[in-house]
Design a protein that fits this description.
The complex is a heterodimer of chains A (566) and B (194). Chain A is mainly alpha-helical and 566 residues long. Chain A is 64% helix and 2% strand. Chain B has 194 residues and is mostly helical. Chain B is 46% helix and 8% strand. Classes of the chains: A mainly alpha (566), B mainly alpha (194). Chain B: It is found in: Cell membrane.
């Protein structure tokens, strides 16, 4: 471990916190339906969209209508992308004559991008320019905007008093896309191009290397996709190697900016929540709990990766674990990226998590199992976190013997049941499907590595899919009908079996009266509350997933230090 | 419920098409237009041309096998490595017998140097399989071999390597590194093929 490495981690954490208020202010304006300076330019587009689609943005929707409209939009965009992927061979902008995807692969890919997961069963180089732009990039925007819309709806549930509606899905979706994601991406994509990320409709150049061999170089509109891939915590790389590929992430500076853009909106959402509740300290308390969990994870992974692999030290190598890492990033920036991308639900990678040391790779896995509530995905992070906050006030209420309250709303049986339902989908899908795959021959055919590490590859895949992360222990051969089908299902369950109960919570809370804070209320801003939140998240995640971790990364670690190979 | 679904159909279908046009066509087209106008070199892959022939990209590593050149890292991209149509890492885990066997093989193929340990990046695969860089130590480790193959003084080569070392940006961003292709091109200028 080096001074520069720790400096990077701490500077990164400080920048994340510094972004919370400026981004949060902008988010709050969109949450509240206020006019922004960009309305002068983009307002006509927004109104035009509403007119053509027959939308009245001022209509307030009940939670049921909000949920149904959201779901139908997901299905429509899902089918659109499925068609593009299947028909790739006959559609334009396919100068390399690439074939269309098979039904199971297109099913998996279309769900993957709709559900903000960007799990990649395909290799990025096998998609045409059109498939990348029209099939995938649109979901990078729309799934991110959907996540933020759901979070806004939940905020309204807490903030409104005896109301029947939680906002308008179409208005939330359109405003977030037009006034937040698109403008940032315009600037961000150009920064990436200036740094070396390609942006062209040409897709292949042949080079003759110094030694006279042929090297075919795949190009494309990389920067425009890269920007929203990071900002929207999508994570689906233009290339197979994702943000490790020099064309996606050419320098240490782009690497820092990519990591920051993963956390930027999630960090801003905490501030926006506080503001929407009329007390920004509520937001800071959440961000504090998140940063504690984040720094703990980053420290463990950095420590383990810097310590290196004893099985290679025996051969005479010294130093940290460089297998599956790029020289321009080194150990610290690779370890940090892996923790950032799994704390949020991004899933982009700048190093191969499969080749991490056993415990270094366990942290990304555990981050996802905690529900990706450490900053988390755009929108998804804060609504997931608020589910844990509901559980935490419930536990606190049991301890002091009062009806729990949170930001002015009584938390009663219905909210707690729905919160548990939203959390329960994680173990059901992750552990259930992992167990199934670990006994069936089609499942066991997947892992590249043998021994406990092979089990971890399967566990990681279902954790990543259910958590809508998209990163992988990429040794797993997942492009089979078996894995495409089950992982696609896991992605859909993990996304929408969480979102629908959360919208139900929003509807239930919105209908309640405001309960003013009294001297007897459990305070939800101070250190005690932050400690309780961290404790609840770790206890729920730990109790649920420790047995599976013991079979995978922990057994792998013990084997690693004993020098046992598989 | 039925009303909910009915009222959703038109917005869902129309917005899918409108957003597809805006985000899937217009947005990438605008970025491409701006990129090609203001940053044409980067936008087209930072290609290196010599006598109108493309010899590679500044950002991508390529395979070097002969003793006359500095070698990059082992690569898992494609079957022969450095395949820019199939970027990939090895994905071998820390307890993998295959990993240990591969590293052993690569170590045996390297000339042993009594003065320094083998730099780890020289026997480990990168994440992309296209890593254009090696550490300064990994470049210096190869100086004796390249100097002998080319018949030039090892000290001259060491100086060349040192000129190619890029340090961290702002003092903490990134690791010291050497771009192997850039170094080898300068090597050819210094000492052309006989």
């Amino acid at each position: 471990m080096t001074f520069e490495g720790w400096a990077l981690i701490l500077i990164f954490a400080a920048l994340t916190v510094a972004l919370a208020k400026p981004i949060g202010l902008w988010l709050y304006a969109l949450y509240d339906g206020r006019r922004t300076p960009l309305h002068a330019v983009l307002g006509p587009i927004e109104r035009g969209f509403y007119t053509l689609a027959g939308i009245d943005p001022t209509t307030d929707q009940s939670w049921r209508r909000y949920a149904v409209h959201m779901l139908l939009f997901q299905v429509a965009t899902l089918l659109f992308t499925y068609a593009i992927l299947r028909l790739q061979a006959v559609l334009p902008l396919n100068s390399r004559d690439l074939a269309g995807q098979s039904p199971d692969l297109a099913f998996n890919t279309a769900i993957s991008f709709t559900a903000n997961t960007n799990w990649q069963s395909y290799s990025g180089e096998t998609l045409s320019v059109l498939s990348q732009m029209l099939g995938l990039t649109i979901h990078n925007f729309l799934s991110a905007a959907t996540g933020i819309a759901i979070a806004f709806a939940l905020f309204r549930g807490f903030a409104r008093r005896q109301a029947s509606g939680i906002g308008n899905f179409w208005a939330d979706l359109t405003r977030v896309t037009l006034y937040l994601l698109l403008p940032i991406c315009l600037v961000y994509a150009l920064f990436l191009v200036a740094s070396g990320v390609p942006q062209t409709f040409a897709s292949l150049v042949d080079a003759t290397t110094l030694e006279g061999a042929k090297q075919s170089i795949v190009l494309g509109p990389v920067a425009s996709q890269e920007a929203i891939k990071m900002l929207g915590t999508n994570g689906g790389g233009f290339f197979n190697a994702n943000s490790a590929h020099p064309f996606e992430n050419p320098t240490a500076l782009t690497n820092l900016v990519q990591m920051l853009s993963i956390f930027a909106i999630g960090s801003g959402m905490t501030w926006c929540f506080g503001k929407a509740m009329g007390n920004t300290r509520q937001g800071w308390a959440i961000l504090a709990a998140m940063m504690i969990l984040f720094l703990a994870g980053a420290s463990v992974t950095y420590w383990q990766e810097a310590a290196g692999n004893p099985n290679l030290h025996v051969l005479g190598l010294t130093g940290g674990n460089m297998e599956g890492k790029e020289v321009r990033f080194g150990i610290a920036a690779s370890a940090l990226f892996s923790v950032v991308t799994t704390a949020a639900s991004c899933g982009a990678v700048n190093a191969m998590h499969d080749s991490f040391t056993a415990l270094g790779g366990m942290i990304p896995l555990f981050n996802m199992q905690l529900g990706e509530v450490v900053i988390g995905g755009v929108g998804a992070g804060i609504y997931g976190f608020l589910v844990f906050a509901i559980l935490a006030v419930f536990v606190a209420g049991l301890m002091v013997g009062r009806t729990p309250e949170y930001v002015g709303k009584k938390i009663e049986s219905r909210e707690v049941k729905l919160a548990v339902l939203a959390i329960a989908i994680l173990p059901l899908s992750i552990l259930g499907l992992t167990a199934l795959s670990a006994v069936l021959p089609q499942g066991l055919a997947g892992p590249l590595n043998k021994g406990p590490h092979g089990f971890t590859e399967i566990l990681y895949a279902y954790t990543s899919a259910t958590g809508n992360n998209g990163s992988a222990f990429a040794g797993l051969t997942a492009a089979t009908p078996f894995y495409n089908g089950l992982l696609g299902t896991a992605m859909w369950l993990g996304r929408f079996f969480m979102i629908v109960p959360i919208l139900a919570v929003a509807g239930s809370l919105a209908a309640k009266k405001y309960t003013p804070e009294t001297a007897g209320s459990f305070p939800t801003t101070g250190p005690l509350w932050v400690g309780l939140l961290v404790g609840i998240i770790l206890i729920v995640g730990g109790l649920t997933f420790l047995p599976s971790l013991a079979l995978g990364p922990i057994a792998d670690h013990i084997a690693m230090v004993r020098g046992q190979l598989f | 419920m039925l009303t909910d679904i009915k009222t959703a159909l038109r917005p869902a279908l129309v917005l899918t098409l409108l957003f597809a046009a805006l985000l899937g066509l217009f947005y990438p087209a605008v970025i491409t237009g701006l990129a090609q106008t203001f940053f044409p070199h980067q936008a087209n892959g930072s290609l290196i041309r010599e006598n109108d022939r493309v010899i590679g990209s500044e950002l991508l590593g390529q395979a070097f096998a002969t003793d006359r050149y500095f070698h990059g890292r082992p690569s898992a991209a494609g079957s022969n490595g450095y395949d820019a149509t199939a970027s990939a890492g090895s994905n071998l885990g820390p307890t993998s017998q295959a990993l240990v066997d591969r590293v052993k093989g690569d170590l045996a193929a390297l000339p042993q140097s009594p003065d320094s340990d083998v730099p780890p990046d020289l026997v480990t695969t990168s994440a992309s399989g296209l890593d254009p860089h090696i550490s300064p130590e990994a470049a210096l480790y190869q100086v004796t071999r390249v100097a002998e193959a080319r018949g030039i003084a090892a000290d001259d080569l060491r100086n060349l390597v040192r000129q190619h070392v890029q340090g961290p940006a702002l003092g903490f961003l990134g690791e010291p590194r050497v771009n192997v292709l850039a170094l080898n091109r300068d090597l050819d200028r210094l000492n052309a093929r006989p």
